[in-house]
From TrEMBL:
GO terms for biological process: phosphoenolpyruvate-dependent sugar phosphotransferase system. GO terms for cellular component: plasma membrane. This is PTS system, galactitol-specific IIC component. Keywords: Cell membrane, Membrane, Phosphotransferase system, Sugar transport, Transmembrane, Transmembrane helix, Transport.
């Protein structure tokens, strides 16, 4: 019964489920019913606008990617199927309904014990935690290890959401939220460290890649839509398009870069009143929870120009690396347009600096390519056992972005007692420590600033 109910809920699209959840949250925090309905509906419309624009982008960029792959003459046999088959497999995990409840209960206990500030309502993306446990179970057949790996994966993701929340708020201007999607939070520590390294390199540290700065210096030629136009021209030329096709692609990418921020603005219109109301309600009931936040999907950040442009710049880089690097067994096809989402918290960590975000994400891309290649056999067997068939394809499959998730695969191998995973545990711990220290430093600076204002 519980399994049926959970499957029914999770089959709802995110732009349907989230407005329902946020409407319920709005009523709980005593927002008047008409306003609650308006805010929740506006939130759903914002998500639809973002996904419609992204779907249009994918329709235009997919043929370009296929054309580039064809021109390389690549005979790489593993197929990139993107994240949906992995998510479908995760929801088929036999203990998924039980773990869903466990995740929510543990999150509430953490809030009660003041071990987190994030209440994660991004239920759809719980599949990331489920998939971690499912991989551990597939490789070890140890259900206890599987459950522990899922729960610890969730806890670390929530803590990363906590530690990146102030930077997210500063970047987006949306108060009372954090990003709790594993496919974005996993790279926040790496980006923070990269940003600190770049900060110590003379001259390089002076490169200001913020879209606002570029636009101020170059006028119209620095506007995101013009940068999108140039990227479209470049991609069209690389794909061998004729003049008409290049022009069509360029205008469409410029349009996507221009429209997405508007859609994000609509989403913000619905989200901000609810997140603000939720924070005020929690403060009224629990005065000590001044930093309480709602954990949201990374889609909240997709519409910002620095995120869009960084993602588009990284797409051809990923294709080139896949062709040139030895040992890569696939070309990133299905997952490549999702680069815009994967780079969100990297852009946040680098404070919207396009240059630093791209530099920080290149080693992540390399890691993803090798991990997704190495895990192809595991993913293929897992999907076979789950009864998920990739139509008309009999070979091995993988997923570039989520299949190559650096944290998840590391966590899975750590729970297998793998020697290389144990060996780099100090590096992983150092990344976590630096992220926590940066969070503490940011909070201390804010506390000092408020103290001076009060004084």
């Amino acid at each position: 019964m519980l399994d049926t109910i959970m499957n029914y809920i999770l089959n709802l699209e995110v732009y349907v489920m989230l407005p329902i959840v946020m409407f319920i949250v709005s009523l709980i925090i005593q927002i008047p019913i008409k306003q609650a309905m308006k805010h929740a509906l506006t939130l759903g419309i914002g998500f639809i606008g973002i996904f419609m624009t992204l779907d249009h982008f994918v329709a235009k960029i997919a043929p370009v990617i296929e054309q580039v792959v064809e021109q390389t003459g690549s005979d790489l046999t593993v197929l990139d199927v993107g994240w949906p088959p992995l998510a479908a497999a995760a929801w088929s995990f036999k203990i998924a309904p039980i773990l869903m409840v466990v995740f929510i209960v543990i999150n509430i206990i953490m809030l009660w014990l003041k071990l987190t500030n994030t209440f994660n309502i991004d239920i759809w993306n719980f599949w990331h935690f489920l998939f971690t446990g499912q991989l551990v179970y597939a490789m070890s057949e140890d259900l206890t290890l599987s459950i522990i790996s899922s729960i610890t994966c969730m806890i670390i993701t929530i803590k990363l959401a906590d530690w990146s929340a102030e930077a997210t708020e500063e970047f987006s201007g949306i108060k009372g939220i954090s990003i709790s999607t594993l496919s974005a939070t996993a790279y926040y520590p790496i980006a923070l460290v990269t940003d600190k390294v770049i900060e110590r390199i003379p001259k390089i540290n002076r490169i200001n890649g913020n879209p606002e700065h570029i636009q101020k210096r170059l006028g119209f030629f620095g506007e995101p839509m013009f940068i999108g136009l140039l990227l479209g021209i470049g991609l069209g030329v690389i794909a061998g398009y004729d003049l008409k096709e290049v022009a069509d692609l360029a205008i469409n990418i410029a349009a996507v870069v221009f429209i997405l921020p508007r859609m994000a603005g609509i989403l913000g219109e619905g989200l901000i009143p609810i997140s603000t109301g939720a924070k005020n309600y929690l403060l009224d009931k629990f005065p000590s929870m001044e930093d309480a936040r709602i954990g949201m999907d990374l889609a909240v950040l997709i519409g910002y120009p620095a995120v869009i442009v960084s993602g588009i710049i990284l797409m051809p880089i990923a294709l080139i690396l896949a062709v040139l690097l030895p040992g890569i067994r696939f070309i990133p096809l299905a997952d490549l347009p999702n680069m815009i989402g994967a780079v969100t918290l990297v852009v946040v960590a680098t404070r919207g600096n396009l240059f630093r975000a791209v530099i920080a994400f290149i080693p992540i891309i390399i890691g993803k390519l090798y991990i997704a290649s190495a895990m192809a056999g595991t993913y293929t067997n897992l999907l076979d056992k789950a009864g998920i068939v990739i139509s008309q394809y009999k070979g091995n499959i993988t997923s570039f972005l989520d299949g190559g998730n650096l944290f998840r695969v590391y966590w899975v191998y750590l729970f297998q007692g793998n020697l290389w995973a144990i060996g780099i545990l100090p590096i992983f711990s150092l990344l976590i420590y630096i992220t926590w220290k940066e969070y503490k430093k940011r909070n201390d600076n804010l506390d000092n600033a408020f103290s001076k204002l009060e004084y």
